[in-house]
Design brief:
The structure is a single chain. The protein is mostly beta strands. The protein has one domain. Helix content is 9%, strand content 56%. It is built from 1 helix and 5 strands; from the N terminus they run E-E-E-E-E-H. A 3-stranded antiparallel sheet has the order 1-4-5, covered by helices on one side. The chain has a two-stranded antiparallel sheet with strand order 2-3. Strand 2 and strand 3 form a beta hairpin. It is rod-shaped, with a radius of gyration of 19 Å.
């Protein structure tokens, strides 16, 4: 079995600023500034001699506050098709 390291899935994601709710549904005071996240995925692949992937182990990933992590999203592909 051969072990490969792979890093990819680079993406820049902008997180918008967050505001408190003001009077009459208007925007209130800013409670969190806008920020940019730089995402990537790092995995270790175990591959057999006939080049069949036997296992994938995530080495570096960024968890999201809600939903799947970036590696889960990127490696799963487009499931809507």
């Amino acid at each position: 079995m051969t072990v490969y390291s792979w890093k990819g899935g680079y993406k820049k994601r902008t997180i918008p600023a967050q505001y408190a709710e003001g009077e009459n549904g208007k925007k209130g005071k800013r409670i969190a500034s806008a920020r940019t996240e730089f995402l990537s995925c790092s995995v270790q692949l175990n591959v057999s001699s006939d080049y069949v992937i036997r296992s994938v182990q995530v080495l570096g990933d960024r968890k999201t506050s809600s939903g799947p992590s970036w590696c889960d999203e990127f490696l799963a592909g487009d499931k809507t098709k």
